[in-house]
Design brief:
Layout (H helix, E strand, L loop, with lengths): L1 E3 L2 E3 L1 H11 L21 E4 L2 E4 H9 L8 E4 L12 E4 L1 H7 L3 H7 L11 E5 L2 E6 L1 H11 L1 H19 L7
Antiparallel strand pairs: 1-2, 3-4, 5-6, 7-8
Helix pairs in contact: 1-2, 5-6
Amino acid sequence: MVKIGGLRITNTSFVMAASVNALIGGDGCWPWLGKANSGGYGLTTFKGRTYRAHRAMYEVVVGPIPEGLQLDHLCRNRACVRPSHLEPVTNWENTRRGVGPFAQKANGDTCPKGHNYDSFRPRQGKPPARRCSTCDRAARERSRPKEYANRRAARAARRAVAARPTGGQG
């Protein structure tokens, strides 16, 4: 027996319903053939309450979904209820693995201005972010122009001193 959303469900009752509503067999997906929501996720109803079919199947077969995690369809098929195609991950990881614009940006090699990403920095209280040091430097210079103008002048002066020929014997 398993609890899904506070309700107790026996493995046999759900698996019997799943076998009617999903095509089970082979190594491929088990697509839910019953009702689906507008996003393509299978829906199942138990005692008047509606559940996403993939979540219910995972909890019955594998166990409870860890708190703070959500199920990622490794097969990218939202109608699939096969437990081996589902993996509990954080929202950040699930979004990164997706196919939307955020995922494309997160998985790209260059920043929007075409510079190569060269660092991956954790940010306090937020997911890690890939950063472009060229764009970061330009943003800092725009925010504090006087400070960076002084630094550029000092750097130019050091280069000028280093480039002067020294009076050597020859």
